[in-house]
Amino acid sequence: MNARNILIVAHAQRADTVQAAARIAAVIHEQGAVPVFDSADLASLNGASPSFAGVKVLVDEVPVADIDVAIVLGGDGTILRAAELVRGGTAPILGINMGHVGFLAETERDDMDEAVHRVLSGDYTVEERLALSVKVRDRLGDVVYETWALNEASIEKAARERMIELVIEIDGRPLSSFGADGCVIATPTGSTAYNFSAGGPIVWPSVEAMTVVPLSAHALFARPLVVGPEQLVAVEITGDTGSNGVLWCDGRRMHLLPTGARVSLRRSEEPVRLARLHPAEFTDRLVRKFQLPVHGWRGPSGSMMTTAVAVIPPAPAHDEEDQTA
Fold it and tell me: Is 181 a catalytic residue?
């Protein structure tokens, strides 16, 4: 039986994260599994610590398809990077929050040892999250760029001093045109990120849908929309030749959009898989991460439920530069 390959993805700019990565790699190796790192991560980590012997390198030595599970040390930005690294494989991602918000993380740093033990024993479930398939076409209709997104795709103005002219289309039919700073198309996973900051609704992960949220639009009808997972959403760049834009996917992948470009978005056939250790309610996650006031809640009549969620202390604040969701 082949040893399990476990990818470790770490936000290497933090000393405590580097030490945690070294400790987890050692435990994985001691238990007969193979710790795997991305080459860029390994270079950064080796520069900060000498204790990364016996590991293998992703792609160069271990194909993405052979990764069993990915353990991520960092914030949501690091988890988004891990999703990028394992794209094309089937490995679920387990996030250990080393930062502040960490909406996608499954556990906090204090529970790191238990989390690693459960990963090694296979004691976790896998939750599939809807992702977006994104295509860009030029004026002639030719596909010039393809990518994907877990959180959101945003079409934004390229020049700060002027708006971008957009037309929103749903299932091949035009819906509305307006000048704006841009537009965000988000998944339920990304509904607590850019979508939320732009005034879009929070969507429970169990709801398969996409949100369409105009950014500072000059229009009477420019409210956030929620569309079904099988809808095809398209955004066209119109106006004069100066109405250029830029496409960002998860804040990580960028493509310039000249006037006449068309961005189409729909559900990707390949979801993103998250490893889960606890059957936690999304409501509790919202209360904890946003520190929402729930004082006075009594719960269902006769219920044994308590308001313990209201007094869960927030994670200690850290300057985590990659908190994007």
Answer: no
Helix ranges (DSSP H) in 149-227: 194-197
CB 25 within 8 A of CB 55: yes
* CB-CB contact of 164 with 155 (8 Å): yes
Amino acid identity, position 325: A
> What is the DSSP pairing of strand 67-74 with strand 5-10?
parallel
The C-alpha atoms of residue 165 and residue 163 are separated, in whole angstroms, by 7
- The runs of H, that is alpha helices, within 212-316 are 282-290
Distance CA(195)–CA(214), nearest Å, equals: 10
248 phi and psi angles, rounded to 5 deg: -120, 135
129 token code pair: 């999250």
What's the gap between Cα 208 and its chain centre? 16
Q: Can you give the pLDDT at residue 227?
A: 97
Q: What is the pLDDT of residue 316?
A: 43
Residue 314 CB-half CA count within 13 A: 15
User: Is residue 306 over pLDDT 80?
Assistant: no
Instruction: Reply yes or no on whether the pLDDT at 307 is more than 70.
Output: no
Q: Which fold has domain 1-130+271-325?
A: Rossmann fold (3.40.50)
Q: Which residue has the tokens 């933090």?
A: 14
Domain segments of the chain as ranges: 1-130+271-325, 132-267
In the numeric block, the tokens 């998860």 are attached to 250
CA distance 292 to 127: 25
Coil/strand/helix, residue 290: helix
For residue 318, give the 3-state DSSP assignment: coil
Does residue 209 contact residue 200 with C-beta atoms inside 8 Å? no
Q: Would you state the torsion angle of the CA atoms of residues 235, 236, 241, 243, taken in this order, to the nearest 10 degrees?
A: -20
Read off the pLDDT of residues 25-47 as tens digits, 9 standing for 90 and up. Answer: 999 999 999 999 999 988 888 77
Out of 76, 181, 250, 322, pick the active-site residue: 76
132-267: CATH superfamily: Probable inorganic polyphosphate/atp-NAD kinase; domain 2 (2.60.200.30)
Identify the residue whose tokens are 């994260």: 17
